[in-house]
From TrEMBL:
The keyword Transferase applies. Keywords: Transferase. The lineage of its organism: Bacteria, Pseudomonadati, Pseudomonadota, Alphaproteobacteria, Hyphomicrobiales. Residues 9-170 form the N-acetyltransferase domain. Pfam families: Acetyltransf_3. Its EC number is 2.-.-.-. This is GNAT family protein. It is an enzyme of class 2 (transferase). PROSITE patterns: GNAT (PS51186). It comes from the Bacteria. The keyword Transferase applies. GO terms for molecular function: transferase activity.
Length: 204
């Protein structure tokens, strides 16, 4: 993917050196849909970073000031444009950096990129019905709640080993809605094709 710059963040592909930052939040994922991504140690984190580095749809969210990876996004990966220009997006922030608007800043830039640069027609997100922060994020992005799938998916089992099914909401927004809406920037967000250097000299 292209490197995307926002006011406080750089969105870029994962690369060698990101393992410790990724491990900091994937050692104990809090959202049920990411339980399966739990990493046991730094070695597993290094393998995960290598995998993500090859995935066009996998995006690292970095602080401009320090270069630290504070979360990740996905969307627009290979093969995802097969269904009539539709792609799904998702997000995962290190809880240490929650409540500061970083998730909104990053996802807004990603949606803008997927609609403008990648030409997607429709973007959707699956969100569990108990995941209020993600629902709030979708709403702030101008996404519409299109429905709730009852007992749609299971990420965990109960003590007897039976799957616990969760109710999943689908939020979505169309390109034309994004372009005419208040959430879009009106102008393409700063996108640079080459990596730069942050204020601490760390490559971003
Ligand atoms: C969902 C998730 C990304 C939301 O992160 P977040 O930090 O709470 O969300 P935001 O970045 O939008 O910020 C939220 C709050 O930061 C504050 N904020 C917003 N902009 C700000 C700014 N520029 N400066 C300081 N604070 C700001 C606001 O109080 C905002 O809340 P409000 O908009 O409701 O008033 C995060 O909880 C997460 O990673 N959860 C686990 C993973 C997950 O559930 N993924 C989805 C699976 S379906």
């Amino acid at each position: 993917m292209q490197i995307i710059e926002t006011e406080r963040l750089i969105l870029r592909p994962f690369r060698e050196g990101d393992a410790a930052d990724l491990f900091a939040y994937l050692r104990a994922p809090t959202a049920s849909c990411f339980f399966s991504l739990k990493l046991a140690d730094l070695t597993e984190a290094e393998i995960e970073v290598k995998k993500r580095a090859l995935d066009e749809g996998s995006v690292a969210i970095c602080l401009k000031q320090t270069g630290q990876v504070i979360g990740d996004l996905f969307g627009g990966g290979a093969g995802e444009d097969e269904e009539d220009g539709t792609t799904s997006v998702g997000w995962h922030l290190n809880p240490q950096f929650g409540g500061q608007g970083y998730a909104f800043e990053a996802t807004r830039a990603l949606l803008d990129h997927l609609f403008r640069a990648k030409g997607f027609r429709r973007i959707y997100a699956y969100v569990e019905d108990h995941n209020k922060p993600s629902q709030r994020l979708c709403e702030k992005l101008g996404m519409r709640r299109e429905g709730v799938f009852i007992e749609f998916v299971s990420f965990t089992n109960d003590d007897a080993g039976n799957p616990i099914y969760e109710n999943t909401m689908q939020y979505a927004i169309l390109r034309r809605e994004w372009m005419s809406g208040a959430t879009a920037t009106g102008q393409p967000l700063g996108i640079s094709s080459a990596a730069g250097t942050d204020t601490s000299g760390r490559r971003v």
